Amino acid sequence: MILGTRTRHILAREPAAGAGVGFLFVFAFFTLAAPDTFLTHASLSSILSSQAVPGIAAISITLLMISGEFDLSVGSILAVSSLVFLSSTVGGTPILLAALLGIVTGCGLGLINGLLLVWTRIPSFIVTLGTMLVFRAIPLTAVSGGRIVRYADFSREDPTIAVPGLVVLLGVSALTVIVLWIALPVLRHREGATRVSAGLAALASLVVVYILLRSLDTHGLSPFARVEFNVFHILNGRADLGLPGTNYRTSIVWWLGLTGVFAFILLHTRYGNAVFATGGNSEAARVQGIDVDRVRIKSFVLSGGLAALAGIIQVARLKSVDPLRGQGLELEIIASVVIGGTLLSGGFGSVAGSAIGTALTGMLRTGLVLISVPSNIFRGAIGAIMIGAVVINTYVRKDR
Amino acid sequence: MTPLIELEGIGQRFGHITALSDIDLQLHAGEVVALLGDNGAGKSTLVKILSGAHRPTSGRILFEGRPVRLDTPQDARALGIETLYQDLALIPRMSIARNFHLGRELTRLVGPVRVLDHARMSAQASQALADIGIHVRNTDEPVVSLSGGERQSIAIGRAVHFGSKVLILDEPTSALSIGETRKVLGYIRSARENRMCVIFITHNLHHVFQVADRLVVLSQGRKVAEHHKDEVTEEQVADLIMSEHQELDGEGRHRHTEQSRSAGSPNKGRQPTG
Predict the structure, then answer these.
(1) How far apart are CA A145 and CA A112, in angstroms?
(2) Which chain B residues have a beta carbon less than 8 Å from that of A390?
(3) How close does chain B come to A193, measured CA to CA in Å?
(4) Which of A357, B32, B42, B104 has the fewest CB atoms within 10 Å of its CB?
(5) Tens digits of residue pLDDT in B202-221
(6) String of b and e for A162-197 (b: at least 16 CB within 10 Å)?
(7) pLDDT digit string (tens) for B78-117?
């Protein structure tokens, strides 16, 4: 036994602990290996901004993996929802309605996955392998011949929503109060990961408040004047932090905020408890009164909605959808989630771990370029790290 | 007196395999009934029907004189029927407190949302376990870190705490020390004093004669004997369980092996993949 029992105990209890340690190692490595380029706002901002979308999709994979299921169709769901969002926007649908349509599409496709799983009793790996191909056919047929749907082809201006200043102020205050109301008692809770995510949620809400108040400020802060918000900017715009040459985007706030919200859902609601129970031992959960099929369907619907949201946030930055959007994303995300400490067999894991795993993946992608390693090695490195992470986690959790 | 539970012609088939046929049984409040039989006799299947985990293919169940459907475990729990399953039905990586309250978590309102009340669940779990003599170091500890006997104690504690009318114990003492076993037999007696009906499955006839009022013997999915404890001796009961087995040689043995396959752990739910 290399580690002390106590250390091993903490590592075994906290899914994100291993990923956190690995993250620090990789971080330290690149800081030393590329001292002038890695630890700069330019590279850190690009890492975080590029990982926000996979990070949000990783929440959806984590949720399902904890419940004992797999979702290979997440990239396809992201593509279909992105397409629904963008094409209804350019077709004249009000932007918020278009976003809602996109999310409903994602939930609907997730529902199909869930119902197929529960009705046929086919393993979700097979079900979602099938739906990955089926859902992918939608953008491939709708957007034929290598075309790309571009927002710029239809409009010069980004979509905006105009809201009375008073409503904005009230909405923001209500949101902050709610988040802090929930987060502050949780901050005092024993479980470390929970505390971290509650802190992140509180922080994210404060950042949202700050961004909104600043954009209000530029409009003179009159409570009755209508304030225009650039929707793409709110979803995934470049945040002006007064640091030239950096690319911190608002999507990072969405990523962290959603991570906090789902960490909370998983650890502090009956549904979250049922997700862990279903993944941990579905027959035991069933005889203890949990409707495991309902939990599975609910998780797939939530997961589809999250994938859609990730897609919409990505569209807000790229302003286009190509039919192959999100292809190959699922495997990279599964790797990040596994690196983050979530068990492939279900019943154990955390969204905070997945956020760390996703950040680690992004750090590796950028860091390898910075130390002049051919970028083709990136996937190989991810694979090696994933296997290493699983080996370490298995060693640490030798508690049966 | 109306029986608490009355089974009429209960049968259970899994495909073309008959696990139980034509079971008639009356169970009363304030009595301990031992359910006996060789492996694969249908004891666990019968228990799963009573706890709502299996839906019987024929027959009907009366509870306090009214016909009821026990289609889901939730239905059984709502009637005050609590079960200790042979495999304990614990989630290994979840904490003792979370396992204790699984499916009936305590919540409180935090702001606008309903959240789990961890503090109250922990306190209630350790209190309830302490009440029946089980002392756990820390209810936040995952069940996977406990010994077999400790796990069994947690599962028994849960069933005893939540059961209000019927307590079904499927081999409750298999992993327990002599002292712990004595305690469990003690709970069974006190449950009887509290006018509960206890259904007790075991292979240990010695335990049966210590606590049971009545003995029901199953063989090959049928009820083959039903006696008051005072009517028979331990040897006679052992012979009953064994002899039924030998009489049905040939075809009977064939049927028996099929039943043990189906009645052992009929896993209706899906296994987690991956």
Answers:
(1) 28
(2) none
(3) 14
(4) B104
(5) 888 888 888 999 999 998 88
(6) eeebeebbeebeeebeebbebbeebeeeebebbbbb
(7) 999 999 998 899 999 999 999 999 999 999 887 678 889 9
